[in-house]
Amino acid sequence: QGSCGSCTAFGTVGALEAVVQIEKEAIFDCDLSEAFLFFCGGASCDSGMSLSTATKYISSPGVPDELCFPYQSNDMDCSNRAVNWNSRVVRASYGAVSGSSIKNALITYGPVLTDFDVYEDFHTYNSGIYEHVSGDYVAGHAVAIVGYNDDPGYWICKNSWGKGWGEDGYF
Questions:
Q1: If we measure between CA atoms, which residue out of 38, 81, 36, 42 comes closest to residue 63?
Q2: Is 88 left (phi over 0), alpha (psi -120 to 50) or beta?
Q3: Who contacts 26 (Cβ-Cβ below 8 Å, separation ≥6)?
Q4: Residues 48-101: pLDDT tens digits?
């Protein structure tokens, strides 16, 4: 994601890539374009993108493969996408889930997109169960919930800040 406020695109595409592989019942190179979703969806690095906008966009027009429009961590002009992008899209419909429905959605469909409030101490997280302890509110942030553990009770999430953050990019 770099220094661009594109976490919604990374959370959405991260969940979508896994769901597509689960649906196909095979592991294959499903690398979709976060840049297409984010910049062609009308967002900018400064303004970000709402979850509802992202989920509507993956339903229609959809998201093509990464090679169609490779990501850079700065505002990008959507006119630079591949000419044949519309023949390369993956589409999906998302429904809202909350509470115990999240666990059911994870089991039934795969990763789930969510957002939450980030505080200063989240930037220095490196392992274990994250709990806000100190620091001021920074911003909203989107991630993909990829699993859970009922004892002691936590979500397992994929973040968009690279493998050098947290537990190999997860928390």
A1: 36
A2: alpha
A3: none
A4: 999 999 999 999 999 999 999 999 999 999 999 999 999 999 888 777 777 779
Catalytic residue among 4, 45, 141, 157: 141
- Per-residue buried b or exposed e for 28-54, using 16+ beta carbons within 10 Å of the residue's own CB: eebebbbbbbbbbbebebeebbebebb
Active-site residue identified among 4, 7, 40, 157: 7
- CA 136, CA 121: separation in Å to the nearest integer? 8
pLDDT on residue 64: 96
- CA distance linking residue 71 with residue 37, whole number of Å: 10
What is the pTM (predicted TM-score) of this model?
0.90
The answer to whether 48 touches 7, Cβ cutoff 8 Å, is: yes
Instruction: Output the CA torsion 120→144→92→20 (10° steps).
Output: 150
Query: Which two tokens mark 113?
Result: 């997109």
Q: What is the pLDDT of residue 20?
A: 85
The pLDDT-based confidence of 9 (bands split at 50, 70, 90) is very high
141 is catalytic: yes
